[in-house]
Amino acid sequence: MSSKDQNLFSKILSVCKARGFLFPSSEIYGGLNSCWDYGPLGVQLKNNLKKQWWDNMTKRSDVTGLDSSIFMHPKVWEASGHLEGFTDPLSDCKDCKHRFRLDKDTKACPQCGSKNITKSRNFNLMFKSFMGPVEEESSVVYLRPETAQGIYVNFLNVQQSMRYIIPFGIAQIGKAFRNEITPSHSVFRAREFEQMEMQFFTSEQGSEKWFEYWRSERRQQLLSLGLKETELHFKTHSKEELAHYAKKAEDIEFDFPWGRRELEGLHNRGAFDLSRHQQFSGKKLQYFCPEQNKSYLPYVIETSIGADRLFLAVLCSAYTEETVKNETRKLLKLKSHIAPVQIAVLPLSKKPALTSLCEKLYSDLQKNWFAEYDASGSIGKRYRRQDEIGTPFCATIDFETCEDNKLTVRERDSMRQERIPIESLNAFLKDNLS
Ligand code: ATP
């Protein structure tokens, strides 16, 4: 794939729609701006990515999991600074009435190009609601704009119940909500999205080392999901960009078809979050270190990535077009461990002799793999569909199978075909899909 551009992104989105990855929310009513539904293959791919992240984080002795609630005490957002400072500069175009986020390099209306735009005013991105039947100031609650605060307020609960000693981390996957002024590029910037965040608690002295450690871990994981080295870029925040409390911050950026954008954030947040919650709640959040026989507020190294952005990055990275026999072949070169379908079982025809063999094979394969059975349409069209959804292998059963008990395995990227005995398919997949 030579050029990555808007046109390319439209093609990816149309594959997503046609093949059941992403649908606009409430589409029959005209859709709801910035809200998206994950179709059957989309949810499987996203779940696979979340599982990879979760296992990567929690299948180790020094990181554990948490699932905190979306609604939190309103004081949480005072302490975190979100009530006061979680704002974006909003501007209106006086000519075409378009409303947009005024970024530092926006000089004119992004819709019509007019320079006749209003001065920016700050707009808080948190969604507000009321808890209980009465809509009054005292019952205001917010939909969390990030999952991290649920981790900070549970820091001591987790540490004490699990008897952790520092350093250790808490990982969480969950929905977050931001009333973004200009949602864009489908799930890249949505108003409802999912975050995968890990907060690693360490001593101040250990914080630089752990920052470097997690930076390298995250890079490795993104590569293992199929993102290419050349598509990932690490951007260190300058002094001016750095939040006043942060000791260090880096964005991991990805080359999306419309430009280089943040995919994941890494922060050394110092002791800011715990100290603010300690101050606002009046409860001590210090950790008692048995070795040093003293209490202190740990530093926090944060890794934060959107599951939806990762989903999109993986799709953009995997999408490929090739010319085969004068026709364009579209395929998703997904890594086999995250592919929503890993093996498709295809009878060459709908004759009962073939379909009954296929159905049995399909139900056996389902025990170990994400398998699909597809009997409708020409074999060429079925291969094309499997290529487009990123299925690494297809197993085709034809009339010869009834004679020799062998099937044809077709590999997605090379389109190479190989005939193997039916009973060795599982072993073949074990060797090739891990
Ligand atoms: P951006 O500058 O792109 O708005 P951010 O710096 O506000 O992102 P963070 O607050 O650091 O983002 O959130 C951590 C991660 O959550 C981001 O790197 C991104 O992957 C994801 N994320 C943030 N906002 C959204 C959104 N509106 N839609 C989808 N994912 C998001």
What shape does the CA trace take? globular
Bound small molecules, deduplicated: adenosine-5'-triphosphate
Q: Using DSSP, what is the number of strands?
A: 23
* Structural class designation: alpha+beta
Q: Count the helices. How many? A: 13
Q: What does the main sheet amount to? A: 7 strands, mixed
DSSP strand content: 25-35%
Regions with pLDDT < 50 over 5+ consecutive residues? none
Give the fraction of residues assigned to helices.
Answer: 25-40%
> How large is the radius of gyration?
25 Å
- What's the pLDDT, averaged over the residues? 94
Strand order of the largest sheet: 3-9-10-16-13-12-11
Query: How far apart lie the N and C ends?
Result: 26 Å
Question: Key terms for this structure?
Answer:
434 residues, alpha+beta, five-stranded mixed sheet, 13 helices, 32% helix, binds adenosine-5'-triphosphate
Overall description:
With 434 residues, the protein is α+β, with helices and mostly antiparallel strands. 32% of the residues lie in helices and 29% in strands. It has helices at residues 6-18, 40-58, 74-80, 82-85, 148-153, 155-162, 207-224, 272-281, 307-318, 352-365, 379-389, 399-404, 425-433, and strands spanning 22-24, 36-38, 63-66, 87-92, 99-101, 121-124, 127-130, 140-143, 168-177, 192-202, 232-236, 248-256, 259-268, 287-289, 294-296, 299-306, 319-324, 327-332, 343-347, 371-373, 393-397, 406-411, 417-421. The strands form 7 sheets. A 7-stranded mixed β-sheet has the order 3-9-10-16-13-12-11. Helix 2 packs across helix 9 and helix 3 (74-80) crosses helix 8. The relative contact order is 0.11. The mean pLDDT is 94. The chain binds adenosine-5'-triphosphate. Adenosine-5'-triphosphate binds next to strand 10, strand 13, strand 16 and helix 9.
